[in-house]
Design brief:
By secondary structure, the chain is an alpha+beta fold. It has one domain. Strands 1-2-3-4-5-6-7-8 form an eight-stranded antiparallel beta barrel. A hairpin with a 2-residue loop joins strand 6 and strand 7. It is globular and about 35 Å long. The relative contact order is 0.14.
Length: about 100
């Protein structure tokens, strides 16, 4: 019985060692928007932008001052966040939203 267990364990180790490694997705290229932002410039109302891998390439993940998250895109100074039905324009350290609000760093 112990010989059977030994053989079974040896086979498991052999197959596990020879299994090909799963390819890792490359890290997304960081967005220049990545980091901490403040709703209307208020340090008590923290927002975040980070870069994540999406099915069609890198995306930005935005978290507003309420902790709500949405996926978006950033191209040529413009931000689009379909889940929030909003867009914005980046100039320097300010992201001005189409509804008149802004995030600042």
């Amino acid at each position: 019985m112990s010989r059977v267990r030994f053989c079974a364990c040896a086979l498991l180790v052999l197959f596990a060692a020879s299994a090909p490694a799963q390819p890792q997705a490359p890290a997304p290229r960081r967005s220049p928007l990545e980091g901490v932002w403040y709703f209307r410039g208020d340090p008590q109302r923290v927002c975040f932008i980070e870069t994540v891998n999406g099915p069609k390439g890198p995306r930005i993940l935005l978290t507003n001052e309420h902790g709500d998250e949405a996926s978006g895109s950033y191209t040529n100074g413009r931000v689009s966040v379909p889940g929030w039905k909003i867009g914005g324009t980046v100039r320097g350290n300010r992201l001005t939203w189409s509804n008149g609000d802004f995030w600042e760093r």
